[in-house]
Amino acid sequence: MIDLFVGWPAATYISFATCTIIILFAGVRITRLADALGKRTGIGSALFGAVLLGGTTSLPGIITSVSTAWQGYADLAVSNAVGGIAAQTTFLIFADMIYRRANLEHAAASLENLVQCTLLIALLSIALVGLTGPEVTIFAIHPVSIILLLAYGFGLRLISDTQHQPLWFASKTKETKPESEISIPEGKLSTLWWKFSGYTVAIAFAGYGIGETGIANANITGLSETVVGTLFTSVATSLPELVTVLFAVRMGALTLAVGDIIGGNSFDVLFLAFSDFAYQDSSIYHATTQDTAFILTINLLMSTVLLLGLLRRKRNGIGNIGFEGFMVLILYALAVVVVTS
């Protein structure tokens, strides 16, 4: 398939655009379903956004990273993962701009989202150890990949315990919008699940197409895998996150919006583990360039800034975004400049 794309560049661009449109369309549809299922099942918007919605909207990125890693494109696989985290965190700032009542970090404050953000920082730190530490492998797999999966599972357990037995509460203000104030859509629960599954499959196939066209783009244009992964495939596969967060904010599902981004980012760190399993030569952590480690470090800074924003809970700022939002935008711009220079 890649040979076909390389021999016919127009097919690459058309396929890339088609897959992107599919991801956008499915992302819009799946958001309403996620909000409904989170309430109908009793899971809650924050936890549903972190696990099921976050994982589902991350499917294009998973498949892109795993398929490219399997074919030996280590830099593309890793940069797609870490670039997606940076893009998605920036998407949250765009959502903040359209929510006029207050800063999103203030209005969507919840203990679950704070724990999720802390988990994300921990996962990014573990991944950074793999990228910068000594090259150690077991059956061509770095131990960090196993640790990431275990840490993610433990983190989800903490989030669940936090939801059911909270020992800390975010004070409510007039700008805070609890989930109970948002209407619960009607319809058969089984029908909602079938629709959710159908859009999930569509997103998965589109993710594979993005991965194949990403490889072709690198071969056709001569751009490095890091640039293609960080700026093109990662943004395209992250579009469900942009659609869901903007749509969720417009619906008033603020906790779902923030939970989807942070939870999706945590899941995206696992792309590194999945890619390591798929990469056949050695550990994927040491088959990448220094630029990927730099982008991962930027992600760590962006997530820390976001956590500070959730804790600080400033109501208003310039242009409806606070100091933390501006810092996230500056960090993302810095990442783009360094990768493309």
Structure summarized in a few sentences:
This protein is mainly alpha-helical. The protein has 14 helices and no strands.
Task: Describe it.
It is built from 14 helices and no strands. It is mainly alpha-helical and 341 residues long. The protein has one domain: NCX, central ion-binding region (A middle domain of Talin 1), CATH 1.20.1420. α5 packs antiparallel against α14. The longest helix has 33 residues. About 1% of the residues have low confidence. InterPro entries: K/Na/Ca-exchanger, NaCa_Exmemb, NCX_ion-bd_dom_sf. Its main location: membrane.
The CATH topology turns out to be A middle domain of Talin 1
CATH architecture annotation: Up-down Bundle
Overall pLDDT score: 79
Shape category: globular
Query: Order of SSEs, N→C?
Result: HHHHHHHHHHHHHH
CATH class label: Mainly Alpha
Alpha-carbon Rg, integer: 19 Å
Strand content: under 5%
pLDDT < 50 stretches: 180-184
Number of domains: 1
How would a crystallographer describe the biggest sheet? none
Helix content: over 70%
Oligomer: single chain
Q: Which homologous superfamily in CATH is the superfamily? A: NCX, central ion-binding region
Strand element count: 0
**N-C termini distance:** 31 Å
The computed structural class is: mainly alpha
Give the helix tally.
14
Organism: Methylophaga marina
Membrane topology: Multi-pass membrane protein
Protein name: Cation transporter
InterPro entries: K/Na/Ca-exchanger, NaCa_Exmemb, NCX_ion-bd_dom_sf
